[in-house]
Design goal:
Helix 1 packs across helix 4 (82-97). Strands 3-2-1-4-5-7-6 form a seven-stranded mixed β-sheet, with helices on both faces. The chain is built from nine helices and seven strands; from the N terminus they run βαααααβαβαβαβββα. It has helices at 18-40, 44-56, 64-77, 82-97, 107-119, 131-139, 164-174, 188-197, 225-232, and strands at 6-9, 122-126, 152-154, 181-185, 200-204, 213-214, 221-222. It folds into two domains: 6-16 and 103-232, Rossmann fold (3-Layer(aba) Sandwich), CATH 3.40.50; 21-97, Transcription Termination Factor Rho, Rna-binding Domain, Chain A, Domain 1, CATH 1.10.720. The chain is α/β, with parallel strands linked by helices. Strand 2 (122-126), helix 6 (131-139) and strand 3 form a beta-alpha-beta unit.
């Protein structure tokens, strides 16, 4: 992997436990959504998001309560809807700022991202969570503020994570050849898409031992960022 000049990392299941999003963040926003809309529904940015949600849901004349019900149904469905993600981000930001929320990041991921950045590798994030949510997890992480490590953040506005074109777009945005970038994710479908775009890939499997590295198949599988480092380090 001596040609690697940049690393693109997923979040859920890769740098952060999947359980944090589904067992902490989603319930936190769900429990506070109605109160948040009642208090801030007339704010320009919130009103615009609510209008966008009604349009997206095909109910442009829905009441505020009906719009909240629509958004709650999307949370339950884990729907990747832009206006929902925006509103969730606003609610989460308040939770982070109040010290109620704290983004868990695997210690090996935080340490290795710092090492890679010190080595001169460029670092990017690509997650289905909004850019705002990405910045919050890393900015208020239990490993400290990690946001200075990353050059840019990509979310589904770039494209679907199962589409090769999304990874091609990230490479263009970074002004790098796809073959100069390493993508890390726990999701086999995302790995397949990034491989089609020409990126190097490693699938992270957190159920494996930390030092495990399997080279079988189209992309290697690693138990941690430490195992990736053994292959990525100069001279490896």
């Amino acid at each position: 992997m001596s040609r690697i000049r940049a690393v693109v990392t997923d979040i859920e299941g890769t740098t952060t436990p999947i359980s944090f999003v589904h067992e902490v963040l989603f319930p936190y926003a769900r429990a506070r959504l109605a109160e948040f809309v009642a208090k801030r529904g007339d704010d320009a940015e919130v009103a615009a998001a609510l209008a966008e949600a009604r349009a997206l849901g095909g109910v442009p004349d829905a009441s505020r309560d009906e719009t909240v019900a629509l958004l709650l149904s999307w949370i339950d469905e884990d729907r990747k809807a832009g206006p929902l993600k925006f509103l969730q981000g606003l609610i989460w930001r308040q939770g982070y700022e109040d010290g109620v929320l704290n983004g868990p990041v695997y210690a090996d991921a935080a340490a290795m991202l710092k090492r890679w950045r010190d080595r001169g590798l460029r670092l990017f994030v690509y997650s289905s969570g909004s850019e705002e949510a990405q910045r919050l997890i890393f900015g208020y992480s239990d490993q400290g503020d990690l946001t200075p490590l990353f050059e840019n953040y990509f979310d589904t506005r770039t494209g679907g994570k199962l589409d090769a074109a999304s990874y091609e777009a990230i490479a263009r945005a970074a002004k790098l050849a796809a073959g100069e970038m390493l993508f890390l994710s726990d999701h086999a479908g995302e790995i397949e898409a990034a491989l089609k775009a020409g990126m190097h890939c490693v699938r992270i499997d957190r159920e494996l031992s930390l030092n495990v590295w399997h080279a079988e198949g189209a992309a290697p599988v690693a138990g941690s960022f430490d195992a990736v480092e053994e292959q990525l380090a100069p001279g490896a």
